[in-house]
């Protein structure tokens, strides 16, 4: 028996471990089988439903604790009260206006801090002199808590919008710096040698090899920076804010309105989730060339 006949005689499920096969007719020869990875097969319940089940169970437990009196309303308002307060804030337009103000602050601070962090990371990552001049001060400054700088920011910039944006910029610069710098320095050396063999100039090497190789780390840094941006925003909006989600929370705190406080916290969470989803979408677009494990 020839080797081709031997392979053809092996049952299809045994040819590839963990594979499933489906028959497909083929004219002029034996029936062909299409092999489908088990990981691509459905698991019964859609993934979006499984991901949604966790938050729904948490809300259900919260509602049960509220209606049974285990969680008093003066400690934490129940879901129904929170929804009612959110509907009132939406009807008056206060919530939408506060969201726009807070989102503008966060994105402005991220743009400033991100630009500074990425620029310094490129200088330190590409040039040894830049590393000697930039890396040590950045490593020292990143260990200083941003909240501790609030008094200085108020003295320097006053109590307007500038200290809030500066606090966010300081918080977002360091994650981007660290990840972009590490991404540049961790580019595969074989790719660099291949570029030199092909005769790429230094500028072409940076453009076609180094920066694309550092892009995955840069996007990870962007996700970290976005998370820190919302944390810095919470603190920043406590500095004499006259608008924004933090302003609504400060007013609610004065009147012990836990329902409004919860509404503001949920808005913070959903805004952070929305921008994180945006970055994940960018990762799928720009990193489509990179195979990745998606879970078993």
UniProtKB/TrEMBL annotation:
GO process annotations (BP) = alkanesulfonate transmembrane transport
Instruction: Indicate the principal place this protein occupies in or around the cell.
Output: membrane
Q: Which residues form the signal peptide?
A: none
Q: Where in the cell is it found?
A: Cell membrane
What are the UniProt keywords, alphabetically?
Answer: Cell membrane, Membrane, Transmembrane, Transmembrane helix, Transport
Q: Name one GO cellular component term.
A: plasma membrane
State one Pfam family annotation: BPD_transp_1
Entry membrane topology: Multi-pass membrane protein
Q: Does the UniProt entry include the keyword Heme?
A: no
What transmembrane ranges does the database entry give? 106-129, 141-159, 165-184, 228-248, 260-279
Annotated ABC transmembrane type-1 domain ranges read 99-279
UniProt-listed CDD domains: TM_PBP2 (cd06261)
Respond yes or no to whether keyword Cell membrane is given for this record. Answer: yes
Q: Which family does it belong to?
A: Belongs to the binding-protein-dependent transport system permease family.
Q: What does this protein do, in the record's words?
A: Probably part of an ABC transporter complex. Probably responsible for the translocation of the substrate across the membrane.
The name under which this protein is listed is ABC transporter permease subunit
Q: Which organism is it from?
A: Mesorhizobium zhangyense
């Amino acid at each position: 028996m020839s080797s081709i006949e031997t392979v053809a005689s092996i049952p299809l499920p045994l040819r590839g471990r963990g594979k499933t096969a489906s028959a497909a007719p083929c004219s002029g020869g034996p029936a062909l089988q299409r092999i489908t990875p088990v990981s691509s097969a459905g698991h019964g319940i859609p993934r979006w439903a499984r991901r949604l089940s966790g938050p729904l169970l948490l809300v259900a437990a919260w509602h049960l604790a509220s209606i049974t009196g285990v969680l008093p309303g003066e400690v934490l308002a129940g879901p129904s009260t929170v929804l009612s307060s959110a509907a009132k804030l939406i009807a008056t337009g206060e919530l939408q206006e506060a969201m726009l103000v807070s989102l503008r602050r966060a994105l402005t601070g991220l743009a400033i801090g991100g630009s500074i962090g990425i620029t310094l990371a490129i200088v330190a990552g590409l040039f040894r002199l830049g590393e000697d001049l930039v890396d040590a001060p950045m490593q020292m400054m990143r260990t200083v808590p941003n909240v501790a700088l609030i008094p200085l920011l108020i003295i320097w910039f006053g109590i307007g919008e500038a200290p809030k944006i500066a606090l966010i910029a300081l918080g977002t610069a360091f994650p981007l710096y660290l990840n972009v710098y590490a991404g540049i320095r961790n580019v595969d050396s074989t790719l660099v040698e291949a570029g030199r063999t092909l005769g790429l100039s230094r500028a072409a090497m940076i453009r076609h090899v180094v920066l694309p190789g550092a892009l995955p780390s840069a996007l990870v840094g962007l996700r970290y920076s976005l998370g820190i941006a919302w944390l810095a925003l919470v603190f920043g909006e406590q500095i004499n804010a006259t608008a924004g989600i933090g302003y609504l929370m400060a007013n609610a705190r004065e009147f012990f309105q836990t329902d409004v406080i919860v509404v503001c916290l949920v808005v913070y969470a959903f805004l952070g989730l929305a921008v994180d989803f945006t970055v994940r979408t960018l990762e799928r677009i720009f990193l489509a060339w990179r195979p990745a494990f998606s879970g078993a």
